[in-house]
Amino acid sequence: MSSKIYVGNLPYSVTDSSLQDNFSEFGSVTSAKVMMDRDTGRSKGFGFVEMASADVAQAAIDALNGRSVDGRQIVVNLARPREESRGAGGYSNSGGRSDVGYGQGGYGGGRY
């Protein structure tokens, strides 16, 4: 079992250190990070906490999931692995559409 925890629906006032403080009552916190918007510098309303062991992480999840923080009910569960992105435009390097581009017959490259 993983020891990385997703924390969602966080109030915008929560910082890395306050997030770490809230989870440290359940055991040793390896890291705590509130995700920030690059453009505005504001919190995105979610973060990740990494605990020292899976048992400690599960205890924190059980105790904190659904707890009210500054009037918001937070969501606490195990973090899922990040999915690989497909790249810009959604087309892979291998293949794509064969009916677009130059040289596909006639003027303008369209099909007749």
UniProtKB/TrEMBL annotation:
The keyword RNA-binding applies. PROSITE patterns: RRM (PS50102). Residues 3-81 form the RRM domain. Residues 102-112 have a biased composition (Gly residues). Gene3D superfamilies: 3.30.70.330. The keyword ATP-binding does not apply. CDD domains: RRM2_NsCP33_like (cd21608). Residues 80-112 are annotated as: Disordered. InterPro entries: Nucleotide-bd_a/b_plait_sf, RBD_domain_sf, RRM2_NsCP33-like, RRM_dom, SLIRP/GR-RBP-like. Keywords: RNA-binding. It comes from the Bacteria. Pfam families: RRM_1. This is RNA-binding protein. It comes from Comamonas squillarum.
